[in-house]
Write a structure and sequence with these properties.
The chain is mostly beta strands. It has two domains: 2-13 and 213-342, M1 Pyruvate Kinase, Domain 3 (Beta Barrel); 19-194, Trypsin-like serine proteases (Thrombin, subunit H, Beta Barrel), CATH 2.40.10. It contains four helices and 20 strands. The protein has helices at 46-49, 113-117, 229-238, 301-304, and strands at residues 2-3, 12-13, 19-20, 52-57, 62-69, 72-75, 86-89, 99-107, 126-130, 155-160, 176-183, 192-194, 214-215, 224-228, 252-255, 265-270, 273-282, 309-310, 315-326, 339-342. The strands form four sheets. Strands 1, 14, 15, 16, 17, 18, 19 and 20 form an eight-stranded mixed beta sheet that branches.
Length: 344
């Protein structure tokens, strides 16, 4: 992968690490902006981890799902919102990352994202149909029968992907498990859980909301915008009149990656410089203005809305906001080789 634009320096912004836990026996009521299995939970025992997989979304999400059939997954509905593309991370241990196709997603008809964001109970559950069967090493989990109930004080083991160091995606990618305790009023719609070690009084296992820790100067929220040549080419192939890259004002234009790979990249590194992707960039009306004539049109937002709408961010996403994680003050030059890692 190579850099296609030059000389950028870094700044400040808030990071939203979109990781969520979806257990095969219950959906968790999530609060705040960001949730993840965090806080140093140990790796999950084989009997739990062998049914857990990761789903990646083009809007920047990385969520846990549970296999309940050879080609059927159970996950949280908020993890697979409309307006984004989703893939199964299906690589074998020790092998390069491989993204597997998903052919259908069905969210519970009573799921309401607005209720979720207000911390109210909702049917936060979804089914995912895969294009091909899961690897043999993944064993479908058994789902509890309808006669079984959860009572206050019951201990449940929750397994999922997440980070062990706040804000550091490199500490994720491992299935971890935590024993949490039911509280509140458990029912068929939701089960609220807390870490018995902290008793809900301080942060414990199971939830995380974080800050990127970077600093921004003269930037609208984030210091850097990253886009790939392949993504621009894919968009232009859908337009009647192709648009130049200056419509989108990226600081970095990457070559050597597939279209929308930037959605899944965690970091890019060049020498002492490390840039970290934070969130998808939602695009404004400025992209519809010709930079040379100042004429305004409908594109590219009209076309992007058809396949790049991000329900969680309530906008059209194209490119990724990024921060400088290391090497502030250094210079990146056109054509510089970059190493990159994915968020898994």
């Amino acid at each position: 992968m190579r850099l296609r634009a030059a000389d950028l320096r870094g700044g400040r912004g808030l990071a939203a690490l979109f990781l969520a836990v979806a257990a095969g026996i219950a959906s968790l009521q999530l609060g705040g902006h960001v949730q993840a299995m965090v806080g140093g939970a140990p790796p999950a025992p084989r009997e739990f981890g062998r049914s857990v997989v990761m789903i990646l979304g083009s809007s920047g999400t990385a969520c846990t799902a549970t296999a309940i059939g050879r080609d059927l997954l159970l996950t949280a509905a908020h993890c697979v919102q409309a307006g984004a593309d989703y893939k199964l991370l299906g690589s074998e241990p020790g092998q390069p990352p491989a993204l597997k196709a998903i052919v259908r997603i069905e969210r519970h008809p009573q799921f309401d994202i607005k209720r979720l964001l207000k911390h109210l109970a909702t049917a936060d559950i979804a089914l995912i149909k895969l294009a091909e069967p899961l690897p043999a090493r993944i064993s479908p989990a058994l789902i509890a029968g309808g006669s079984e109930a959860v009572a206050v004080g019951d201990s449940l083991v929750v397994a999922g992907y997440g980070v062990t160091v706040r804000g550091d995606g490199r500490t994720g990618g491992t299935v971890r498990a935590a024993t949490l305790v039911a509280t509140g009023q458990p029912n068929t719609l939701q089960v609220r859980l807390f870490d018995p070690r902290t008793k809900g009084e301080t942060a414990g296992l199971g939830a995380y909301a974080g800050d990127s820790g970077a600093h921004t100067a003269f930037a609208d929220g984030y210091p850097l915008l990253v886009l790939s040549e392949a993504s621009l080419s894919d968009l232009n192939a859908r337009l009647a009149i192709p648009l130049p890259v200056d419509r989108f004002r990226p600081n970095l234009l990457l070559s050597g990656v597939d279209a929308y790979d930037e959605d899944y990249i965690d970091q890019v590194v060049s020498g002492d410089v490390t840039l970290k992707m934070v969130k998808p960039c939602t695009r404004c009306q400025v992209t519809t203005i010709d930079q040379r004539t100042l004429e305004r049109g409908l594109e590219p937002l009209h076309t992007l809305a058809g396949y790049r709408h991000n329900a969680l961010l309530d906008g059209v996403a194209f490119g990724m906001n990024a921060i400088v994680a290391a090497g502030a003050g250094q210079t990146l030059t056109r054509g510089a080789p970059l190493a990159h890692s994915y968020r898994f």
